[in-house]
Design goal:
Serine Threonine Protein Phosphatase 5, Tetratricopeptide repeat; about 5% strand; single chain; mainly alpha; two-stranded antiparallel ribbon; two-stranded antiparallel sheet; about 475 residues
């Protein structure tokens, strides 16, 4: 799609880890044969590592932060991120094409690994088990990436005949059409369920790779979007009851400086970023100097208990006021490593999200007992963030949903959820007057604004005769 058609054929495997380069050089990139590229189980493992290395992670962070009410423009911003921040979303915009191409390039790499698994002979039982684990990981990542594409480029109307995006179950440099939502959901859940079965059998858990708990967590996340409340509860409960614990106040900073061992961390799946050469989270300030692009919005800062909530202490730094005498709350969530500015592991999924998913699903089911369960999950999370917090309780579903969405905003700030939370709840983006300055031209988006669904990139439209553009672009 110069896109799947052109980009993949010219860039295939260019971003794989160095260990993969020699065996990939045996065949031209646009005609690579799986039997040439993957000859041993170690080759498959290297190929899977290359898939992880090619996932952006930051695209989702950036879209959700810049499109919503999480940030405000800093006076030192000289244009960075402003086209998206001002909601000037057009098919030729670079962030649009970047989000699309990263997903589909990575999917092609991933599918080539999957297609090679049955072509590679295992030398022993251990290698056979590793092959099946790699299959489970890649199926899970395939579902994860497809769901990200869905959240960006598809509306959330639960109409099976509506258009999704292409679901790529095989390497294909042709011109695929958009699947309908019903088929897309079926393919998505099939990949998740097979991943769950394979990864549960493996007994392997490494939070640097897609794993059984991440697969269950993804199922819970997808179920929440699709309105499958009991499925969301069951999958989230599988993770919550697994033995992984929420990271407490005393260790919370270490969660974001990546100092915690796996046994201490609530992270379920992350993409390691050991140094800045692995990629930085350069959304709110420049890596090379002190230029600030965006501060936290005042409306965001105001929802925290700034004296007691460990999240405020870790996520932000109070810089006083900016040159316009406005409160300057610097975003520090991904600046916790000493001497490694904007460098942090990309947290793809955490246990705290599972508590919030389960709480919301309970609330959606309604009834006194479910509302009590919803409040219990939120209180469990808050007790690990605030000393002796006042407990929440819910008398109605509407009150519960409103409070849970606010808690999601606090806990999951800059992790790629806010825009999609507003979108799936048919809520507008509303920026307060104190978060608007002369360089900000958009004060928000109405709930029915077409820009909640991003356009198919112009490059894809030009290259793929079967592609259909989203409405109003």
């Amino acid at each position: 799609m110069k896109s799947i058609k052109v980009i993949i054929s010219t860039i295939f495997f260019a971003g794989l880890l160095t260990s993969c380069e020699d065996y990939l050089a045996t065949t031209p990139y646009d005609s690579i044969d799986a039997t040439a590229a993957f000859q041993t189980v170690q080759d498959l493992s290297d190929g899977a590592n290359g898939v992880y290395g090619s996932i952006s992670g930051q695209n989702i962070y950036e879209i959700n932060a810049l499109m919503t009410d999480e940030l405000r423009r800093a006076p030192t911003n000289t244009g960075q991120g402003m086209q998206v921040f001002n909601h000037d979303i057009i098919p030729s915009e670079g962030t649009v094409s970047g989000a699309w191409s990263n997903v589909y390039i990575t999917l092609d790499r991933l599918n080539r690994v999957l297609e090679a698994i049955d072509l590679v002979a295992a030398g022993n039982a251990e290698e056979e088990a590793l092959k099946e684990r790699i299959r489970g990981e890649m199926l899970g990542v395939r579902a994860y990436l497809h769901f990200d594409a869905y959240r960006i480029f598809v509306d959330f109307d639960l109409n099976d005949s509506g258009l999704a995006v292409p679901y790529m179950s095989a390497s294909n440099v042709g011109s695929p059409a958009r699947d309908n939502k019903g088929d897309y959901h079926t393919l998505l859940m099939a990949d998740i369920d097979e991943s769950i079965n394979l990864l549960e059998s493996s007994g392997f858990f490494n939070f640097n790779q897609f794993n059984y708990l991440a697969a269950q967590g993804l199922k819970a996340r997808v179920a929440l979007y699709l309105g499958e409340w009991q499925m969301a509860i069951d999958a989230a409960s599988e993770v919550i009851n697994s033995g992984v614990s929420l990271t407490g106040r005393d260790s919370y900073q270490g969660l974001w400086s990546d100092a915690l061992e796996q046994s201490e961390s609530e992270v379920l799946f992350k993409l390691p970023r050991l140094t800045s050469s692995d990629g930085t989270v350069q959304i709110t300030e420049r890596t090379g100097n002190e230029d600030i692009f965006f501060y936290a919005s005042n409306t965001l800062a105001d929802i925290y208990d700034q004296n007691n909530d460990i999240r405020f202490d870790v996520f932000f730094k109070d810089d006083g006021v900016d040159s316009n005498d406005r409160p300057a709350i610097r975003v520090y969530k991904y600046n916790q490593r000493a001497g490694q500015k904007n460098t942090a592991d990309i947290k793809m999924m955490r246990l705290s999200e599972m508590y919030l998913i389960r709480a919301e699903a309970y609330a959606r089911l309604g009834g006194a007992s479910n509302l009590t369960n919803a409040a219990a999950d939120v209180n469990e999370l808050r007790s690990d963030r605030i000393p002796n917090p006042a407990p929440v309780s819910y008398g109605t579903t509407d009150a519960a949903i409103s409070n849970i969405l606010e808690e999601r905003r606090r806990e999951l700030f800059l992790e790629g959820h806010r825009f999609f939370d507003l979108k799936r709840n048919n809520l507008p983006v509303e920026r307060a007057a104190e978060d608007i300055d002369g360089g900000t031209t958009s004060t928000g988006l109405a709930a029915d604004d077409h820009r909640f669904v991003w356009p198919i990139p112009q490059s894809e439209m030009f290259a793929n005769e079967n592609m259909v553009q989203n409405p109003d672009y």
